[in-house]
Amino acid sequence: MMTDFNAMNKTKLRAYVIEHPEDKSAFQAFVDRYTSEADSVTYSPAQSLEEMKEIDNLIKQRLTQTKSS
What is the pLDDT confidence band of residue 45, given thresholds at 50, 70 and 90? Predict the structure, then answer.
């Protein structure tokens, strides 16, 4: 029996992947869904110490946002 991963919401798909770690197609559906919905932000390499500090602060902010989501 084939499971329709597209019909599952994120919570159900995640639970399914955890319950069935051997199901590679479920895991791929999980990764595809989260990757496609993720927002990507790119930054130029730091040119100075001040920019490195700013990038460090941005990363910390992003991690804080992710943890609170």
Answer: confident
